[in-house]
Queue: 4 jobs
Job 1
Amino acid sequence: MAGPTPLLLRARVVLPIRWPPIAGGGVVVVGQRIVTVGTWRSLRSRFAGEVHDLGDVVLLPGLVNAHCHLDYTHMAGLFPPQKHFCDWIKLITTEKAHWTFSDYAEAWLDGANMLVHSGTTTVADIEAVPELLPDVWTATPLRVISFLEMTGVRSRRQPELILHEALEKIEALPAHRCTAALSPHAPYSTTPSLLQRTAALARKHKLGVTTHIAESATEFEMFRHARGELFDWLQRNERDMTDCGRRSPVQHVARAGLLGRNFLAAHVNCLAPGDATLLARQQTSVVHCPRSHDYFQHPEFPYRSLTQAGVNICLGTDSLATVQKTPRQKIELDMFAELRAFAKAHPKVSPEHIVQMATINGARALGLRGQVGELKPKAFADLIALPFTGRSGDSYDAVLAHPGPITAGMIDGDWTVSPGG
């Protein structure tokens, strides 16, 4: 019985990411996987199949969004930036209390659609409403890793019960392109016991873990010095504060055993001496969300310290609840907007390295190295095309500057955005 017919994609420039741009390039896809990448002349002489000449485009792997909250897409513009981080937490907590299951489902699906049309093919999504799974998975072509959010401070629920329910949910989910993992929300909204038990459970079941950590100066002050507005607010709400005043947030999660190759630290804006080295030594990746960072006016993201230590840094969108919006402005989940925001804040970082943060670095952080985020044999056929009429040497600059929707997109060898509309 004959296998799938090869699909030959031709582009002005092919951008494999891990290798130099290929002028007059092509990609051969069979089924869900890439077979090979090279010049169009060499591929056309070796392969027969269905040909798609994409024209004047740069063809590159789909972007990897390593931190998102699809549930909150419809909260865009609801909350103006607040003076204190705690005030924002109170606002979103109050708003969530009014939302229905349908509200979350519609927001999730709209957010996923935004990502598909703006070039994301893989997303790490923090799932606050696990009841949405797996139905929302089947409604999107995206490759989703749903990190089930866990807290426990306000509810006073036992860590064993929280984790039992999360694992029960994960094990009940059907085999799918999408998968699930664990997300203790943040050190300040969880207990040390939950963090420790999450680390042990993740190792036992080979699960990924992500946590918001060292995001704000007030969180850093809470853990390092046992003071500040976050410390005072949580103390008034009867959180046990005996885990504060001893170490930085990074050191706090390290002590719980969370750091490791399967752990993705979200934000990490505030470092104590030695924190960057600790993250690097444990092979923990960090995801930075530039537009969210701007919204909160957090301390400068320590890009240089982290990269010098050898930490893998990737990019994410966070949620639209934390993107500044003017009254007439329409904002969307868009990794290209995050690329531009990062470039503006870090003008000395090359376009090539910035694009790598949204592709191969994100793939590595999510345990998908060699599978997504690059064009190579045996990788998933997750690709996007952007309009491009320049020279191959300018392709990274063009990706960085790209506005608006993509020209074409593919996930698992199926078109998600058809060429030519």
Note: Residues 63-365 form a domain with the TIM Barrel fold (CATH 3.20.20.140).
Job 2
Amino acid sequence: MTHPYTLVLTLSVALLIAWGTLSPPGAPGAALPLSDKQIHALAFALLVLPLGWVRPRAALWFGPLALAYGGAIELIQPFVGRSAEWGDFLADAIGIALGLLPGQLRARLARLG
């Protein structure tokens, strides 16, 4: 059974992603230390990391679900004054792969040892 904290953390990250990507754009502020694409990759890595670590086999369904979530966000963004970008979707996919990798490596090492 998946620990409830894992689900709460995953849902919290999903809500933060929704808030950050679907809020109308504000006035330009100070430059961020990461690019937009890096932020997308980091956010989606953090989205899948908890469940991917605790339940590595969940990657079979959770990875595609997270990618569909990223795609849905890109489709909705034009309705909130933002632009949809294939680059953001690709960054989401890269982040998902990177976020699932630690759990997959841990599971593989456990099977070998």
Note: Helices lie at 4-22, 36-54, 59-76, 86-112.
Job 3
Amino acid sequence: MNQSSFKQWSSALLKVWTREFVLVFSDIGVLLFFILLPTIYPLIYTLIYNPEVVHDIPVAVVDNCRSTNSRQFVRMADATEAIHIVGYAASISEAREWKNEKACYGVLLIPHDFDRNLNTHQQATIEFYCDMSLLIRYRAFVSSLTSLSLAYGAQVRHQQYSLPSSTPVNSHAVFTGNPSEGFASFLIPGILILIIQQSLILGISMLGGGRAERRKINGNSDPLTIIAPSSASILGKALCYTVIYIPLVLYMLLFIPTIFNLPRSTNIIDIILMSLPLLLSSSFMGLSVQKLSSERESSMLVIVFTSVIFIFLSGLTWPRYAMSPIWYGISSLIPATWGIEAFVNINSMGANLNLTATPYLMLWGLTLAYYTLAIVIETHNKKSAKAISSVNKH
């Protein structure tokens, strides 16, 4: 490319960049996804999971054993951090009614043979039923009951066999990335990255739907389109979205963790550098798939649905190393997957870009790949539109 061609290309890129700004800020629907959604959603999600650790969750007891051992187990359960015994129910049916009335969120059922099994050195079983409408309660129940069963088992061994009740080796866990062991510290950093990607793709898809509608009205021609090479057109649009999102990224990745006292990094430079390939790759990905949006509203159905899939593929709910090769490969094609890993390393684990080089380089790799794909699709669309126009003229 000679100097004259480069000037023309740069001029076209600038025109596309300026026109895209006008299109974004004149479209209320796009502003809803580009501005309002990234502003409100982080607050809503963080408020849901804040406070991070729940205490004294109401639990009903159905004691069919009514022995000294069963009463001791209930007292120990009531002494745990998460469980608060609100009363004894006569039967599991009555306890279920309490749960339906929200008088309790869990039911501890002690079978009639609990005491006999303990005294005959057999394994005793206790059943627990809980409301899983909020996973933060379920996690607290599981953690408390696991610790309770270990402590009660050690006490029984000490009484029956005169063995020391303490364990031979004490363990102490130090959680560097999630010191409070809370859901907000665990989930919110990943959710923030996913919100950035999905809101960006939603807005881009809605812009693509608007272009498709204008082409239908104007005989397969969009009067608001700037004539430019595909490479300049794609890059100009992506740079427009990136500039708009940089203040939102700072708000989401720095301000939100600060006001909710979540693990956070003060290294603004690394977060900005990490965000650039995330925004660019997400923009190019959105520009690659926006052709699927034949109408403005259709983008919402597709992109919102994929948000649930992307959460699972990101490794937040299931570790990526345990995925099958097919799902691992698909997850590697999603910018948010690598963005979440990079941001968690920087924000929660105190790493810098050198220590999180793999996800950072993968983001730049996806940026280049989706940029190339978007150019190919844009070029193909232009040729198709030109061919249709020629046929219509004849």
Note: Strands lie at 57-63, 83-88, 106-110, 127-130.
Job 4
Amino acid sequence: MRKLKITELNRLSVDEFKRADKLPLVVVLDEVRSLHNIGSVFRTSDAFLVNGIYLCGITATPPHPEMHKTALGAEDTVDWIYRKHTLDAVKELHEQGYTVLAIEQVEGSTMLGDLQLDREKKYAIVMGNEVKGVQQEVVDACDGCIEIPQYGTKHSLNVSVTTGIVLWEFANKLMSFRE
């Protein structure tokens, strides 16, 4: 096997990305503090053609050199909006017809592998703070919660890792425009 060169990967230009059909999915970052995690979420969102990102509360906004270290320019391709309060973002998304799901460990959560999605709907996923997770009031405002099964001794995953896992699952189930 030979590794492919960057020029062989047929990646979209920034303009092509902006015009491309997007996954009917928005990522909401609820009080995420790490610039590296935020940058990583931008980069992963670019990889899966996510429709946009809401940056809420203490979550930093581009441009920022520390964020750019992990985003590698994805902060220029993926559309983003800042909202001071995550609840305002959830309300706005509901008004736009999104089903809003928190990624959190709660009573009655849906395990990620069991998640059923409708290709005719739009979704938003809320990712929480590195220490506290998704705020309870935000969980209460969501339409449901998704949980990633974990089998080891730790009770949580890094927010950027979690986002990658969840985006992969959503892309697998919703990328009908790529078939």
Note: The two ends are 26 Å apart (CA to CA).
